[in-house]
Amino acid sequence: MAAQTGLSAPAPVSRGDGTAVFPPVALSAEAAPFTPQATDGWPLGSPSDAEKQFTRCAAKLRALRTDSGQLREELNQLFDQLLSENYNKTFDPSINIRPEDVCTLLKHASCLVPLSQEHLVIKLCQLVHHLLNQLKVIMDEKTLDVLVNYTVSALKVCSTWTHSDILLALSTVVYGNGPQCHQHFGDLLGEDGVLLLYSSPSQPNLELRRVALTCMANICLRIPGQPSLDDQYRSVSFTVFVKTLQSPKPPDTDELFYCMVIQAALKGLQCCLSGGKWKFGGGEELGSVLASLKRLMFQGTPGVSVEWPAVLYPAPLPQYEGLSTPKPCEPPKTTEPPKDMSGKTSGNKKRKSRGKGKKTSTEESRGVDGEEDDREAMPALQKGEGREGGRGEVESFSRPSALSLYPSWKRTSSDSEFSDPEGNAQSKLRLYHGRVRQGALHCLLAVVKGVEKRTLYGYWSSFIPDSPIGGPPPLTLLTIILKDPSPKVRACALQVLSAMLDGSRQFLAVAEDTASPRTCLTLLSPFCWPPRSESCTAPSCLAYLVANAPYHRLRPGLLSPLWKQMRPYVRHRDVNVRVSVLTLYGALVTTQAPLPELQLLLRQPEGSGSSSTGSFTPQDSALSWRQRDGVSSPSRTPATPSKRSLDTHSPRIPRTPGEEESTRTPWLLQLCVSLVTQPREDPSDSEGAGTGAGAVLEPSPVRLEALQVMSHLVRGYFSLAQGCLCEIGQVSARCLRETDPSIQLHGAKLLEELGTGIIQQYRAENNVPESSRVPMSQVVMFWSEVLSGPLNAALQNEQHPTLQTSACDTLSSILPQAFAQLPDKTQLMCITVLLGLTYSENYLVKTAAVRALGVYILFPCLREDVMFVADTANTILAALDDRSPNVRAKAAWSLGNLTDTLIVNMESVGANFQEELSDMLLLKMLQAATRASGDKDRSQLTRSAFQRPLEDAVRALVKTVQSEATMKVRWNACYALGNAFRNPALPLDSATWSSDAFSSLCHVVTSCKNFKVRIKSAAALAVPAHRGCYGDTERFSCVWHSLAKALENSEDTNDFLEYRYSASLRHTLSQALMHLLAVSQPEDMPALGASLAGEEGLGIKEHLIKYLRAEEGGGEGAQGEKDSGGDSFTPQERIKSLQETLIRLRGLKAEGKGWAEEERGKEVVVEFLQDLLKTCEEP
After folding, report:
1. Looking at the predicted structure, is the pLDDT value of residue 910 above 90?
2. Each residue of 1046-1102: pLDDT tens digit?
3. What is residue 535's three-state secondary structure?
């Protein structure tokens, strides 16, 4: 180690002009290291001036004692020095003052300032607010307790003129700490609490009233992760806030200060509603709150002068505010500096700018109104708002509605009618009016999120325009979105509208476009596109609308204007706008897909467009925003549609016969592929991902959203996307090769959607012509490339379990026919990987692997492989004992598929397969299914060793059907009982459990509130193929009357979401009744005749006519037929079956003692069927 040389840094020598000059120093290894210094001689990185001042003052303050001779003067000087500094880190990022130092200083200062020294008390309170607010200090419990005790005591002892500053400090201290101050709530929020006294509408001092309301709001504020305020005090505060909003402005009150009071009340109301679960009281409480918020939503809006209702009532018809008689415009009064009722000027209203960035709750000012600079502020405000603003009444802007509602941001500056002082006052007043409107919308958003959707739906007509009846347009959220002068207010209105539309599908599902063309939400989409400042919020709002509106029930043409209007924004300079527009496109291609209107829009070539729509042409949408603005790069020419076509980047695929002309790659698909794979045309405007060759791709959020749109497009419009199957596969493979796990995950999901689309095409019930399907050879080639590509790496990527899960789902989406044609080693690889992943420690991966095996067990090429069936069965049995309920649920589902495979093998392969499969394994399957409460027990094994376990399993199913389990569990239990009835080897007529099984199904088919459970129970009752399976005449009659009663009540439900299944339920019930007639015997005729001859028979006949004519097919009903396992016969086949039943019944011969009664019953039944047949055969 080198010895110390004693050298030091050379001292600076001063020039004549005062500039420091350092003498030259010879370079040497032993020279002292160079230390950069600031201009004042302090080393760079040293504390800032504010930090040094704080440190010096804190040291002096800690040295003071209560017995100091000059204590008052020294405290006064130290407080002034501390208050003179700006500690905001946005002003000086180098400030680094520790929170514990601030807490120590404030605690010590509170011990030094007696409550009798009121001027020092005020300065200490100002210092508390100054330091805690600017430094964002999180206090420890001791400091919180000391400061709350001090301020509460000061409120009791000090004079009233000090209470404004004391409350300001208290509001800063209790910000987000309300629950920790419960011991002081009696003094603050009790019956005679100081906050209730000062926040009362009768309080003449508006400054006290404002600060008291702000303090109450900060007490109610809930920080995430902390407990909420006690309901008792939250309710008291809520009442105060609501009364403040409902009370009129006191006479001779400055409008500016009144706006500040309303802002504080709105902030408090929002904190109450957002501070945990809130239940509005009975009566008109919710309606009165909504009425107040709606009135304040239009506070200060030019031209709005209406008679506002005190309460809004939920009603099916819209409420409209009638415009009051226009008042004559008064000349503006002379402005003067605003003063509060106590005579103080508004000097404390000035606040530093906090920048344009969006604030979080922890960044808002804790003791003030949360003031922030609005973009709509006039130049006078931008230069720095003075301590004094305009006073005087706001003039009434009542004008004809067409003029008064014209968007004010479109007016030129020459429209101003005010002089400079008046303009400054008016612009400041507009600023505060905008904040009131914004606060009202924030509160309305909290109400929308906190109130049950069904309850809120009754008030929709007050906030969303309905069919206009005539006269002036109603004042709604749409009015604010289109007309409000503040961009922030317009954005808030869009957020409220989005929240109202979110989850509204159940209320909009029954909507129909039967009125005049321009009505209600049908034209909300085109008019909701506001100026640039809301270009990000508007598409999100429209996405909620599109996702919830029943466009398949509305007239076509509503989506086309919106579709064309969005296209220019896909190349917007703002990444968030591009993502929002893609989200909206995703909602469009998802809603009720496939919609004929969207099919036409997707088929349009990229070069098509209509100038009459007033929007950009599709060619414009392919250009970047810089090129549209005329700043195109000279080195790059705009990409033409042909250059950006998918065919440019991949070899042309063979088309199926007859598709060459009709098949065209959707332009939206081309756009998404280019966003995912192509470099940015103008990489300088936002960040992107490099590809290693210097090219810059789109930012990750844009690429992810584009991949999601591709997935939605493939799912809903596969027939349009199948023409570029291989190209989409290549995009997915490219995504799987990237390093970003999110991109990999979306690439795997896209592959899964492709596989699912192919499977749907090849399902027989979808009736897709072979010429329209993807050729089998192409499907095999597609999966061969996928399985030999990067999907294997994704399956083995243990660092990203979600990616493994998605890869397992992709394997399960292989078409069974294509799987059979894959090479043996590829099939073995898929099976081996899935069996191995069932041992994963991650439950998501294990769930997906077990589900995939449940899919594979149904493959015809695998189900006859005894070894594969045995391995899969053992894996499923092990998964049934897993600790994760998700794994157990999928294992039960896979077990149901396994038993289906065993049933098919018994019929197709025969006894050979049954002998090769272990009896012990079958017994374990049955016992495991019984332990799982028979969720999906479909076993149909009848060997002697299985007799007792089989009875236990069926009884478990009966118990599940009758229980209060989830609807899906009961649905599957009914399905399982139907499978048990279908097994001819089970002694259904003599089994001890058959009576309970029929009884449970008869009960469920008439009483269950879920229509899908009723459908499955009705289908199960129609399964037994022979009359003997139904037991004696009493049981047969019970089944008949239960089905007839269920048919009569097939539309009785309190949840109109179930109506979509009502047609399917009636179809299944009618089929079951026809089946009972087909298997009936002479002993059943008396009961059947009595039923058909009465009122019950009239209802049955009406529904059977619709069933035989197939008048309730299609839509949800058609899907319900598939779900219920119902017949897919044509009307001619159903009538033929009826004729066969009629012939059989005519040939029945009654015997025994009651033969006469049986004959009379048979005559009634035959006559009923003849009349039914005659009615159905009529044209």
Report:
1. no
2. 988 887 766 666 667 888 889 999 999 999 999 999 899 999 999 998 888 888 888
3. coil
Mean pLDDT of 1157-1179: 86
Q: How far apart are the first and last CA of the chain?
A: 113
**Distance in angstroms (rounded) separating the CA atoms of residues 976 and 936:** 6
Burial (CB count within 10 angstroms: exposed 0-12, middle 13-18, buried 19+), residue 979: buried
Classify 509 as helix, strand or coil: coil
Predicted confidence at residue 25, as pLDDT, reads 47
Helix (H) or strand (E) holding 14: strand 13-14
Q: Cα angle at 179 between 113 and 209, to 5 degrees?
A: 60
HEC string of 998-1066 equals: HHHHHHHHHHCCCHHHHHHHHHHHCCCCCHHHHCCHHHHHHHHHHHHHHHHCCCCCCCHHHHHHHHHHH
Reported residue count of the chain is: 1179
State the alpha helices, DSSP H only, in 247-360.
Answer: 255-274, 285-297
- Is the Cβ–Cβ distance between 162 and 122 less than 8 Å? yes
**Residue 756: is its pLDDT beyond 80?**
yes
Q: At what angle do helices 1033-1048 and 1011-1021 cross, to 10 degrees?
A: 150
Cis link prior to 594 (omega < 30° from 0)?
yes
Residues 865-890: pLDDT tens digits? 888 988 999 999 899 888 998 998 89
DSSP bridge partners of 696: 690
Q: Quick check: 742 pLDDT over 70?
A: yes
Q: Do 525 and 546 form a contact (C-beta atoms < 8 A)?
A: yes
Backbone angles phi, psi at 395, to 5 degrees: -75, 150
Residues 1025 and 1041: their CA atoms lie apart, in Å, by 19
Classify burial at 93, counting beta carbons within 10 Å of its beta carbon; exposed 0-12, middle 13-18, buried 19 or more.
exposed
Contacts of 337 (CB under 8 A, 6+ apart): 345, 346, 388, 389, 391
CA dihedral angle for residue 672, residue 674, residue 676, residue 679, rounded to 10 degrees? -150
Instruction: Compute the average pLDDT of residues 36-58.
Output: 67
Question: Pick from 885, 886, 891: which is nearest to 872 by CA?
Answer: 891
Assign 696 to helix, strand or coil: strand
* Residue 772 near residue 714, CB atoms below 8 Å: no
CB 923 within 8 A of CB 949: yes
Sequence-separated (6 or more) residues with CB below 8 Å from residue 1162: 1082, 1085, 1089, 1145, 1148, 1150
Helix axes 71-83, 49-63, angle to 10 degrees: 160
Confidence of residue 663 (pLDDT cuts 50, 70, 90): low
What distance in Å separates the CA atoms of residue 131 and residue 340, rounded to the nearest whole number?
26
Q: CA distances (Å), 626 to each of 131, 271, 690, 694, in order?
A: 46, 43, 21, 21
Residue 146 sits at the vertex; the CA angle it makes with 142 and 152, to the nearest 5 degrees, is 145
Average pLDDT value for residue range 646-662? 41
* Closest to 892 measured CA to CA, from 844, 931, 942: 931
User: Could you give the CA distance from residue 56 to residue 76 in angstroms, rounded to a whole number?
Assistant: 15
Range of weakest confidence among 455-469, 664-678, 1133-1147 = 455-469
Q: Write the CA distances from 928 to 874, 886, 896, 938, 979, integer angstroms.
A: 11, 16, 12, 12, 18
749 neighbors 711 (Cβ within 8 angstroms):
yes
pLDDT digits (tens, 9 = 90+) for 54-65: 999 999 988 888
Whether 215 contacts 169, CB under 8 Å? no
CA dihedral of 893, 896, 902, 908, whole degrees rounded to 10: -100
3-state helix, strand, coil in the chain (%, to 5): 60, 0, 40
Beta bridge mates, 13: 21
